[in-house]
Amino acid sequence: MAADMRLPVIRKPVSLIVSTDRRDLVVPGDVITSDTGFMRGHGTYVDEEKLTASVAGEVQRVDKLICVRPLKTRFNGEVGDVVVGRITEVQQKRWKVETNSRLDSVLLLSSVNLPGGELRRRSAEDELTMREYLQEGDLISAEVQSVFSDGALSLHTRSLKYGKLGQGVLVQLSPSLIKRQKSHFHNLPCGASIILGNNGFVWLYPTPGQQEEEAGGFYTSHEPVSLSDREVISRLRNCLLALAAHKVLLFDTSVLYCYESSLQHQVKDVLKPEVMEEIVMLTQQKLLEQEG
Amino acid sequence: MAGLELLSDQGYRIDGRKATELRKVQARMGVFAQADGSAYLEQGNTKALAVVYGPHEMRGSRSRTLHDRAVINCQYSMATFSTAERKRRPHGDRKSTEMSLHLKQTFEAAVMTQLYPRSQIDIYVKILQSDGGNYSVCVNAATLAVIDAGIPMRDYVCACTVGFVDETPLADLCYAEEGGGVSSLALALLPRGGQIALLQMDARLHQDHLETLMEAAMTACKGVSKVLDEVVRQHLQEVSVLTGE
C-alpha cells in the first residue's frame, strides 16, 4: 500500500491575505462602554456600571442593545431552525435528542407525525411502542418548535420532510459555519442530497427516487446504494471538511462550487492540505464572480 | 538548606533569569477540531494541553445537576513521560485529585456558570512536560481553552507561582527552584479587577513577608495576562478574517 508522507509546513489559511485590523473585536474583561444608556445583551455583563465583554468575539450593536458574538460556540437554537440530531434517550412521551446544544433537546410524542394520518389520537399503546419508531442512536432531522426557559429546545417533525434518517453520512461541523437560508434541504445536481442543519450537523444522502407519502418519516430504505452515489457522497463529505477547515460559510452554492472544483482530484486526495487549499481558493473565486 | 544557590550575588537565578522575570510563554488556541475549545501552552519547559467540552447535558450521575448554574468538572492528569522518572498512573492519585479540585474552584470563580443551568462544563488538562509551576500552567492553558469554547468568563484567570529566597520574591519557579526547599505560593488572579480566584501555600513563611510575596505574585500574574491577551487577540484576528465578510 502506498503511504503518503509529508514534513511539517506552516500553512497560512487562504483568506488571511486580506488581513485588516478590526476594531470591533473584544476579549473577556474588555470594557465595551461605560455609558449606562445601553442594554446588556448576550456575551456581556455589567461590572461597576461598565458594560464588559464576557466572551471573545465581535461586538454587535442593534440600537441600544449590545451583544458580543463569540466566534465559536455550541448551537443556540431559534424557533424555525432545521436541525439534525441523534436520539440519546427514550422517555415517557418524549425522546431526548443530542443536537450540539447546551442541553439535550426534546422531541415530544405529540409533536411527531405517527403513521396513519395527521389527526390520529395518541394512545397509551403509542407510548409503549415509541422505541419502534425511534430508538437510541437513530438520527433524525427536525425543526425547532420552541425554546424552553432554560435554553433547551423542543423539536417537531410535523412535516414529511423531517423524520428518521436512513442511509447517508453525518458530518459534524461548527454551527457558525452554516449560513441561514430559506431552505436547508437541497437536492444537489451532482446526484446527492444534503441537509444543512443549523446546529452544524450536515447529513449527506442519496437523492431518494420517489417520495413515499404514507411512511410518515419513520421507515427508511435499506436498498443498497450504488457505488457511484457513494462516491459522490464521499466527495461531498471531503469537500465539506475542506470548506470547514478554511472557515468558508456553507450553503448549497458554496458546497456545489467546491464539489465542482474538486472533480479533477481523486476523492481521497481532497483531504490533503495543499489540495484543500487549492479547491477552497477556486470555490471562493467562483463565489466572488457569482456575487458580481 | 540544599547546597544549590538559588539566587546569586549578582541577582541571577539558576536558569539565568532575574528575580521577577517570567519564563517564555507560548500558546496556541483551537488545536483540536472535535472539542468545543482547546489550547496548548508552554511556559518555559512546562507544557500543557487543555480541552473543554460543553456546556452540555449532564453525563454520568444526574444527581449532581444544579438547577441554578452549570457544574464544572475538571480533570488534571500528567503524561507518564512528563517527569524525569516515569509515572505509573497518569491521573487518579492523590496529588492529581487535589489539583483537579483546585482547578475546579479556580474556574468556578471565573466562569459565569449561572447562565447555563442544569448543564455541565468539562475541563481536561494534561501536563505533557513538567518543569515546575504545573498548577499555574494548567490554569493558563485552561483559560485559553475556555475562551476558545466561547464560554462567558468575568475575566481571564492567570496563575503564577512565586517563591521566597533571601528576602527576595522569585517569580514563576522552575522545577529546580521548587525542589530547593523554597517556600512557594501559587496564586490565580482575575487581573483586571485584581480578585483572587485561588491562593495556595503549603510552606512556612513569616507573616511580614506575605504581603511582598503576594504583591510579587500579582505582578507576575498580570505579566502572564498580557501574554495571554496577545494570544487571544491574535487568534481572534485570524479567525474573524476568515469568517467575517
UniProtKB/TrEMBL annotation, chain A:
<comment type="subunit">
    <text>Component of the RNA exosome core complex (Exo-9), composed of EXOSC1, EXOSC2, EXOSC3, EXOSC4, EXOSC5, EXOSC6, EXOSC7, EXOSC8 and EXOSC9; within the complex interacts with EXOSC4 and EXOSC7. The catalytically inactive RNA exosome core complex (Exo-9) associates with the catalytic subunit EXOSC10/RRP6. Exo-9 may associate with DIS3 to form the nucleolar exosome complex, or DIS3L to form the cytoplasmic exosome complex. Exo-9 is formed by a hexameric base ring consisting of the heterodimers EXOSC4-EXOSC9, EXOSC5-EXOSC8 and EXOSC6-EXOSC7, and a cap ring consisting of EXOSC1, EXOSC2 and EXOSC3.</text>
</comment>
<dbReference type="GO" id="GO:0071035">
    <property type="term" value="P:nuclear polyadenylation-dependent rRNA catabolic process"/>
</dbReference>
<dbReference type="GO" id="GO:0071038">
    <property type="term" value="P:TRAMP-dependent tRNA surveillance pathway"/>
</dbReference>
<dbReference type="InterPro" id="IPR036612">
    <property type="entry name" value="KH_dom_type_1_sf"/>
</dbReference>
<dbReference type="InterPro" id="IPR048565">
    <property type="entry name" value="S1_RRP4"/>
</dbReference>
<keyword id="KW-0597">Phosphoprotein</keyword>
<dbReference type="GO" id="GO:0000177">
    <property type="term" value="C:cytoplasmic exosome (RNase complex)"/>
</dbReference>
<feature type="domain" description="Exosome complex component N-terminal">
    <location>
        <begin position="25"/>
        <end position="62"/>
    </location>
</feature>
<dbReference type="InterPro" id="IPR026699">
    <property type="entry name" value="Exosome_RNA_bind1/RRP40/RRP4"/>
</dbReference>
<feature type="domain" description="RRP4 S1">
    <location>
        <begin position="74"/>
        <end position="146"/>
    </location>
</feature>
<dbReference type="GO" id="GO:0003723">
    <property type="term" value="F:RNA binding"/>
</dbReference>
<keyword id="KW-0539">Nucleus</keyword>
<dbReference type="GO" id="GO:0071051">
    <property type="term" value="P:poly(A)-dependent snoRNA 3'-end processing"/>
</dbReference>
<dbReference type="InterPro" id="IPR012340">
    <property type="entry name" value="NA-bd_OB-fold"/>
</dbReference>
<keyword id="KW-0694">RNA-binding</keyword>
<dbReference type="GO" id="GO:0000467">
    <property type="term" value="P:exonucleolytic trimming to generate mature 3'-end of 5.8S rRNA from tricistronic rRNA transcript (SSU-rRNA, 5.8S rRNA, LSU-rRNA)"/>
</dbReference>
<dbReference type="Pfam" id="PF14382">
    <property type="entry name" value="ECR1_N"/>
</dbReference>
<dbReference type="GO" id="GO:0034475">
    <property type="term" value="P:U4 snRNA 3'-end processing"/>
</dbReference>
<dbReference type="InterPro" id="IPR025721">
    <property type="entry name" value="Exosome_cplx_N_dom"/>
</dbReference>
<dbReference type="GO" id="GO:0005730">
    <property type="term" value="C:nucleolus"/>
</dbReference>
<comment type="similarity">
    <text>Belongs to the RRP4 family.</text>
</comment>
<keyword id="KW-0963">Cytoplasm</keyword>
From TrEMBL, chain B:
<dbReference type="GO" id="GO:0071051">
    <property type="term" value="P:poly(A)-dependent snoRNA 3'-end processing"/>
</dbReference>
<dbReference type="InterPro" id="IPR036345">
    <property type="entry name" value="ExoRNase_PH_dom2_sf"/>
</dbReference>
<comment type="subunit">
    <text>Component of the RNA exosome core complex (Exo-9), composed of EXOSC1, EXOSC2, EXOSC3, EXOSC4, EXOSC5, EXOSC6, EXOSC7, EXOSC8 and EXOSC9; within the complex interacts with EXOSC2, EXOSC7 and EXOSC9. The catalytically inactive RNA exosome core complex (Exo-9) associates with the catalytic subunit EXOSC10/RRP6. Exo-9 may associate with DIS3 to form the nucleolar exosome complex, or DIS3L to form the cytoplasmic exosome complex.</text>
</comment>
<protein>
    <recommendedName>
        <fullName>Exosome complex component RRP41</fullName>
    </recommendedName>
</protein>
<comment type="similarity">
    <text>Belongs to the RNase PH family.</text>
</comment>
<dbReference type="InterPro" id="IPR001247">
    <property type="entry name" value="ExoRNase_PH_dom1"/>
</dbReference>
<keyword id="KW-0007">Acetylation</keyword>
<dbReference type="GO" id="GO:0071028">
    <property type="term" value="P:nuclear mRNA surveillance"/>
</dbReference>
<keyword id="KW-0963">Cytoplasm</keyword>
<keyword id="KW-0539">Nucleus</keyword>
<dbReference type="GO" id="GO:0006364">
    <property type="term" value="P:rRNA processing"/>
</dbReference>
<keyword id="KW-0698">rRNA processing</keyword>
<dbReference type="GO" id="GO:0016075">
    <property type="term" value="P:rRNA catabolic process"/>
</dbReference>
<dbReference type="GO" id="GO:0005730">
    <property type="term" value="C:nucleolus"/>
</dbReference>
<dbReference type="GO" id="GO:0000177">
    <property type="term" value="C:cytoplasmic exosome (RNase complex)"/>
</dbReference>
<dbReference type="GO" id="GO:0003723">
    <property type="term" value="F:RNA binding"/>
</dbReference>
<dbReference type="InterPro" id="IPR050080">
    <property type="entry name" value="RNase_PH"/>
</dbReference>
<dbReference type="InterPro" id="IPR020568">
    <property type="entry name" value="Ribosomal_Su5_D2-typ_SF"/>
</dbReference>
<feature type="domain" description="Exoribonuclease phosphorolytic">
    <location>
        <begin position="155"/>
        <end position="219"/>
    </location>
</feature>
<keyword id="KW-0694">RNA-binding</keyword>
<dbReference type="GO" id="GO:0000176">
    <property type="term" value="C:nuclear exosome (RNase complex)"/>
</dbReference>
<dbReference type="Pfam" id="PF01138">
    <property type="entry name" value="RNase_PH"/>
</dbReference>
